Input
Amino acid sequence: MSYRLHGLESEQQTLLDNGTLLPVMEQFYTIQGEGHQTGKAAYFIRIGGCDVGCHWCDVKESWDAKLHPLTKIEALISSVKEFPAKSVVVTGGEPLIYNLTALTKRLKEEGLATFIETSGAYSLSGNWDWICLSPKKTMAPLAPIYQVANELKIIIFNQHDFLWAEEQAAKVSTNCYLYLQPEWSRSKTLLPDIIAYVKDHPRWMISLQTHKFMNIP
Output
């Protein structure tokens, strides 16, 4: 499915529906800062549109898809090819609001590895080398994504989130990497609790937003 963006011509809506046109908030080449891929160079594509509504979201400007230009996926491919890294991270917003099959097909044709970060609240589309599932309490993931997630990343904002983390971990495969990440604005307060929790529950690992410490996008 995709957002129904008011005011679009029927042809534009058709292209949006089939995923050859996407509302892109930003795209940039950087170092992955979170989770299992931390420290690797990658090209990021941030797609606009999200109704999951996390109150602590640090990219709320991504929520309204109408604010972001509809971009042809061929233009995205051209931009990606300007840089040497062979990995592309698709994020949002919530990217799975849209059909991402066409985008990943073209990325694969160019020999690029495909990575996605998603809340899992919408059906999975696209061909992915790595799926980072970051579920949110406001809109729980659909059941099928749990067994294909390569990485489970839980944002810790309060003490109850540790319980939420365990509930989510019980649903993923045994091969899925498990990460706890402090919400940035409360990281100094929460990090000691996360460290203690991981020491007591060593199947979990800690994810930090290292790109913020390095002051890069």
Remarks:
- The chain has six helices and nine strands.
